[in-house]
Amino acid sequence: MLPSGSGSRMSDEERGVGMGGGISSKARPACKLSVSVKDKSEQRILRHIANLASGDHDTAIRAEACLIRYYGARALAQLIDACDHPKPEVRYRAVWALAKTSDPRSYDTVLRLTGDPDEEVRYDATLALGKLGDTRAIQPLVAIAREDDVSRPAVDALMDFGLLAIDPYRALLRGANPLVRLAATQGLGNIAMKHHSLECVAILKECLEDPDGRVRENARDWLDEELRELG
After folding, report:
1. What is the pLDDT of residues 175-224, one digit of tens each?
2. What is the DSSP string of the chain?
3. In a domain, 7, yes or no
4. Does 181 map to a domain?
5. Same domain, yes or no, for 118 and 158?
6. 127 lies in the same domain as 142
7. Is the whole-model pTM more than 0.85?
8. 144 and 128, same domain (yes or no)
């Protein structure tokens, strides 16, 4: 693909411009040209989708990058189909590309893959829920986080929602699992630092009374080191 502003590679005749600067008689009707460009774009999308399954790692990674960078939501239907591919490496690459579209139509597919039988697919799909940015994902992520499943990093995914994640983290801090509470303090610390949130700082101060020493220590580290200017 040509960089923006680099000009066209087509000749004058291909562009339909005659020698006198007018429209050449060989110019195609606009509607047919539009269809032709669309067909070529779809062909490229399908080629990149097929390359997600390549046994060559570099080829597969490049296909994923091209789908994200150049096509986005235009490849939505093909990416959703790819999420049912028998190869897990295709599914986790496709679900990550779906998240990068920021298209709410991706939500159901991304959510479904958080329960995929393959661990890598579950992992990427869970993080993808955060990257997608659809607020419908917040409550499912809280439910996943309570399960303390290391293959589904829901507490990390919640951080992508910024200040909207404060109440979900507060809810997780009321749970019985100290590892979940520990992860929640980490999320609150990151949000406090990024958004200069005094509310997060106040919650972290409450964590200094947590019954688990690791939670108290992590909260103290955030307050004494990263957030001392806010506290």
Report:
1. 999 999 999 999 999 999 999 999 999 999 999 999 999 999 999 999 99
2. -PPTTS---S-HHHHTB-TTSSB-TTPPPHHHHHHHHHHHHHHHHHHHHHHTT-SSHHHHHHHHHHIIIIIGGGGHHHHHHHTT-SSHHHHHHHHHHHHHHT-GGGHHHHHHHTT-SSHHHHHHHHHHHHHHT-GGGHHHHHHHHHTT-TTS-HHHHHGGGGGGGHHHHHHHHTSS-HHHHHHHHHHHHHHHHHHT-HHHHHHHHHGGG-SSHHHHHHHHHIIIIITTTT-
3. no
4. yes
5. no
6. no
7. no
8. no
